[in-house]
Specification:
By secondary structure, the chain is an alpha/beta fold. The protein has six helices and 13 strands. The relative contact order is 0.18.
Length: 210
């Protein structure tokens, strides 16, 4: 079963509280999404492999630890996932970025793919799929299936700021091998498949489109 990590660090929870507030404006909302994504990335990469490398400081030779093994890739689910990319790249400048465009059909609530572009060596990388909201889980599950089936990805982590129990259940059912990192698991989905209490439409609030 997929490992679920709820990141209860005080800084993440404080920023999440401001993010949820309906009075938080576009500029601050966008900045908070980035800050939370960066803090979550710090936790989600805790177990990355390192190796000893010899370097020379201004004073003497030294043995230091640097990242080893698989290189990383960040794959946002468009469009809201874009808000999480740049802050993660600031932490991991060597990571490559792919994009998956999915929208939720307003009647069926099922994901529909409209865009997909990946780095050519994506199958050799550890992939972090990012999206602020895990609601029904349909889009995230479809994105992960696409990465596995079309691109041969085998090492995938999913990062969402807020999840609904229904979405968590779908990922655990469809992709038990994928680790899931979230800042909060909320109460439920409402009749419109919005997370309750949630924070509204993350894409609209990041880009000021509503």
């Amino acid at each position: 079963m997929a490992s679920l990590h709820v990141l209860e660090h005080p800084l993440i929870q404080h920023k999440l509280g401001i993010l949820r507030d309906k009075n938080t404006g576009v500029k601050e909302f966008r900045e908070l999404v980035g800050e939370i994504a960066q803090l979550m990335c710090y936790e989600a990469t805790r177990n990355l492999a390192t190796e000893e490398v010899e370097i020379e400081t201004p004073v003497a030779k030294a043995t230091v630890r640097m990242l080893a093994g698989k290189k990383l890739a960040i794959v946002p689910i468009l469009r809201a996932g874009l808000g999480m990319v740049d802050p993660i790249i600031d932490l991991i400048p060597s990571a490559k970025v792919g994009h998956i465009g999915l929208y939720r059909d307003p009647e069926t609530h099922l994901p529909v793919e409209y865009y997909c572009k990946m780095p050519p060596d994506i199958s050799e990388r550890q992939v972090f799929v990012v999206d602020p909201m895990l609601a029904t889980g349909g889009s995230a599950s479809a994105a992960i299936s696409l990465l596995k089936e079309k691109y041969g990805c085998k090492n995938i982590v999913l990062m969402d700021i807020i999840a609904a129990p229904e979405g968590v259940a779908v990922i655990r059912r469809d992709h038990p091998d994928v680790e899931l990192f979230v800042a909060a698991v909320d109460e439920k989905l409402n009749e419109h498949a919005y997370i309750v209490p949630g924070l509204g439409d993350a894409g609209d609030r990041i880009f000021g489109t509503k």
